[in-house]
Amino acid sequence: MTKYVKINKDMNKRINKQIKEYLSPDYIYLPYNNKDSLNVKGKEEIYKNSIVLANKNKFVYSPVSGTVMGLCDNIVDGKNQKTIVIENNFKENVSKSSGIKKDPYNISKNDLIKIVKSYGAFDENLNGKTLVINGIDNEPNEATFSYLIEEHTDQILEVVDALINILDIHKCFFAIKDSDSNNVITLLNQMGTYPNIELKLMKDYYPIGNKDILIKELVLNSKMDDGVVYLTVEDAFNIYNVLKRKTPITEKLVTIGGNLLTKSKVVKVKIGTRIADIVADEFKIKKDEYHIIINGLLSGYEIDSLNAIITPNIRSIFIEEVNTEKPVKCINCGLCHINCPVSADPRYGINMNKCIKCGLCNYICPSKIHLVGDKHE
Ligand code: SF4
Ligand code: SF4
């Protein structure tokens, strides 16, 4: 294995053992841009899972039943954007349900691609002979994937096994960290039932959960010619739900933590929920001044307000103390270069086209110099 870095334990935030549910927000906010065609009108009463927006073969579904209220601004994946506001009536009315399908895995590859895309489960490459399932959280302070495996091991293994058939996969790797002890035991016990899935226990080094790094570690370059299908365990679980229930993906798990929250939790939320509402109901922020960091303390980005919404791209939210440490002069120790997983040298801008923005150089620099990406201070 290439050299990667073991992150100090203090980067790991203590997380509550149980998944917390926050599934009844007063309002839902769905991102809208001018290219979308609007399927609803102001004041219209809509069902849960009804189509609110459409763009070619992609659709945005309502995670609640309720009333369409109009538009307002919110932060969507780090940028200001208009969102459609839906007031929740808490009835969870659904228009029609096709129920549980009897043989959901008896479909062609083309049908699979169509279904998973239109229901918002997966919209990337499904062509290749090697399937990589990533069960490793992207950052050491996130527990979203680990909790998802713990809660839904059977469903995830079932759908991965089915995908091997539908996609005509020749080799399947399921990667988790060797330190993810509960999941290691459960998965090892189940592997006998799934001979086509090879469990890979990866050393707990950062950034092994990164897509490119994991694929490089698992798949020899020669086999890459046949193509790699890459799914996170979240993608796999979403595909399971779409195939089994024929309903869109409107909920997800998010790790919420940080040194200014009294507790860290993995929370099940509806897509389109405002982060401010979750934090106000479930957490207490210890100070008035704080940073909000999305998708990890090492490689995440900062937003300036809690008026941001949960999108399918959000894995974690951290509320962190304002950092008063000032950078000092570079001592030319070379650590930023030696530890870079793609052998870039951020000091001199060498090989930065390969940079995966993992943030390891920032973390490791003894002079506290911020070399790459968003600055949280
Ligand atoms: S240069 Fe890029 S890839 Fe290398 S450690 Fe820094 S952020 Fe990570
Ligand atoms: S890790 Fe920091 S101090 Fe060391 S060479 Fe890189 S920039 Fe300079």
Description:
The chain is an alpha/beta fold. It folds into 3 domains: 22-91 and 248-320, no CATH class; 109-245, NADH-ubiquinone oxidoreductase 51kDa subunit (Rossmann fold), CATH 3.40.50.11540; 323-377, Alpha-Beta Plaits (2-Layer Sandwich), CATH 3.30.70. Helices cover 21% and strands 24% of the residues. The chain contains 8 helices and 17 strands. The protein has helices at 109-118, 144-166, 181-190, 211-218, 233-245, 275-282, 335-338, 360-364; strands spanning 20-22, 27-31, 37-38, 45-46, 51-55, 58-61, 66-76, 79-88, 130-134, 171-177, 197-202, 228-232, 251-257, 265-270, 291-294, 301-303, 316-320. The strands form 4 sheets. Strands 1-14-13-17-15-16 form a 6-stranded mixed beta sheet, with helices on one face. A 4-stranded antiparallel beta sheet has the order 2-8-7-4, with no helix packed on it. It has a 4-stranded parallel beta sheet with strand order 11-10-9-12, sandwiched between helices. Strand 13 (251-257) and strand 14 (265-270) form a beta hairpin. Helix 2 packs parallel to helix 3 (181-190). The longest helix has 23 residues, at 144-166. The protein is globular, with a radius of gyration of 21 Å. The two termini are 33 Å apart. The protein binds iron/sulfur cluster (2 copies). One iron/sulfur cluster is lined by residues 340-342, 344, 346, 355-361, 371-372.
